[in-house]
Amino acid sequence: METIYNIDGAQLNKCEIDILQFVDSWLPTFQTWSVQELSQKCNLFADEASHAVDMLILHGLMENSEEDALMGRVVQVPDIAQEWMHENAETLNGLHMMNDASLFDDSETAEA
């Protein structure tokens, strides 16, 4: 079962939070990303990244850009989404850190 987090009205899963946290760390320097690149940078399968980007588009946090012949599907972060990410950066970073098990060693994690 997937955990959904409600952040300021947007219901986001772990993949979406990972992508937003990564993108936010590069704003405003880079505003355009290929879905393939997001997949690689966030350690996601291509299908996971594509689905997460689709949901972020539905939330208005990303929008499709012109497709690139080399990199494939490209998305960009609109200005209003950049503002939303800036306002919610602490929450996004906290959830990203909480969900990233690679940041912890075995002595710091609980087992069910």
Brief account:
47% of the residues lie in helices and 12% in strands. By secondary structure, the chain is an alpha+beta fold. Strand 1 and strand 2 (10-12) form a beta hairpin.
List the helices and strands and how they pair.
Elements: E1 5-7, E2 10-12, H1 14-26, E3 32-34, H2 35-41, H3 46-58, E4 63-64, E5 74-76, H4 79-87, H5 89-99
Antiparallel strand pairs: 1-2, 3-5, 4-5
Structure description:
The protein has a three-stranded antiparallel β-sheet. A two-stranded antiparallel sheet has the order 1-2. α2 crosses α3. With 112 residues, it is of the alpha+beta class. It starts with a strand and ends in a 13-residue tail after the last helix. The model has no long low-confidence stretch (mean pLDDT 87). The chain is built from five helices and five strands. The chain is globular.
